Amino acid sequence: MDKENNRLVYLDSSVLIDFYRKVNKEKSFFNFLQKDYDRFSVSIVTQYEVYTGADMSRKAFWDHFFINIVIVPFTSPLIFTAILIERALKLERKSIDFRDLAIAATAFHVKEPFATMNAKHFINIDGLQLIVPPVNE
Fold this sequence. Notes:
The protein has helices at 13-21, 29-33, 44-53, 56-66, 76-91, 98-110, 119-122, and strands at 8-11, 39-43, 70-72, 114-115, 130-131. It is α/β, with parallel strands linked by helices. The protein has one domain: 5'-nuclease (Rossmann fold, 3-Layer(aba) Sandwich). Helix 5 packs across helix 6. The model has no long low-confidence stretch (mean pLDDT 90).
């Protein structure tokens, strides 16, 4: 896939954590995504997850990282999207952690491709355009 101007991808916290932890950033899934996308967004819940796991020595890294990332707030319309997703999952006798539900509802609502390294958390949600790391990553 060739990069087109203003291509946006929505990121799960797993992608950001992988990027941070990789000593060689070139081998990160985030770096792989930059070949096809030039704009990135995350849920405010993803930002919360990242900052919750970061100590003060990592805060500056994430402050700088989030400068160029679109942060999508968790608003009333997203709450109703989350409710619909959760009801659909319950019909299939499936469940999802609330933070993953909020992140998925945001991904569903923004209608952008959703990059995650934890596809198993989201695979049962119809309508998400999941992007996962290549097999050799």
